[in-house]
Write a structure and sequence with these properties.
Layout lengths: L1 E3 L5 H14 L10 H9 L6 E7 L2 E13 L4 E11 L8 H16 L4 E3 L6 H9 L15 H6 L3
EC number: 2.3.-.-
Pfam family, one: Acetyltransf_1
Protein name: GNAT family N-acetyltransferase
C-alpha cells in the first residue's frame, strides 16, 4: 500500500534515510534531525513531499520529493530526492508502486518530468530504473557546493 506520509512516519523515514546513507557509504554525512524533516514536510511552508510504502502495517519504503521547474518544457516536474525500500521488503513491488504514484501525480498535474540521481555503481537501482523505462542522462554531470565551499563563495 502506498500513501502520503504523515507526521507519525517521520521517525521511520529518518531511520530509512540512515539505512540508505549507510548503503551509499555516506552515513557520516547524515545530519537531518526529526525537527528538520518534520518542518520540511509539515511546516508552514513545506518544501518536501513524502509517500510511504506499507506492508503488514509497517512502513517499509519511502519516496521524498520536491517540485522543480523545466524552463524548456515550461512546467513543474518532480525531483525524487530519495527512493528506498528496506532490503527485507525488496522484490515486493514497493519501489515500482512508489514510482508509479509519483508518475500518476505528474500526469494528473500536467508535470512533464520525473527526475532523480543514482550512484553510478548502484547496479541494482540502475537496473530497476531501466526496467520501468527510465533513461540515463549520461551527458549530464551533477555538481554540488556544500560545507566550506558553500560558505566561502559569498565572500
Amino acid at each position: 500500500m502506498i500513501r502520503t506520509a504523515t507526521i507519525h512516519d517521520v521517525p521511520a523515514i529518518i531511520g530509512m534515510i540512515r539505512e540508505l546513507a549507510d548503503y551509499e557509504k555516506s552515513l557520516h554525512e547524515v545530519r537531518v534531525t526529526h525537527e528538520q524533516l518534520e518542518s520540511a514536510l509539515f511546516g508552514q511552508e513545506p518544501a518536501l513531499h513524502a509517500h510511504v510504502a506499507e506492508q503488514d502495517g509497517q512502513v517499509v519504503g519511502y519516496a521524498l520529493w520536491f517540485l522543480n521547474f523545466s524552463t524548456w518544457r515550461g512546467t513543474h516536474g518532480i525531483y525524487l530526492e530519495d527512493l528506498y525500500v528496506r532490503p527485507e521488503a525488496r522484490g515486493g513491488g514497493h519501489g515500482k508502486a512508489l514510482m508509479a504514484e509519483l508518475a500518476r501525480i505528474c500526469v494528473e498535474r500536467g508535470y512533464h518530468r520525473l527526475e532523480w540521481s543514482v550512484l553510478d555503481w548502484n547496479e541494482p537501482a540502475i537496473a530497476f530504473y531501466k526496467s520501468i523505462g527510465a533513461i540515463p542522462m549520461d551527458e549530464w554531470t551533477v555538481f554540488r557546493l556544500t560545507d566550506e565551499a558553500l560558505r566561502r563563495l559569498p565572500r
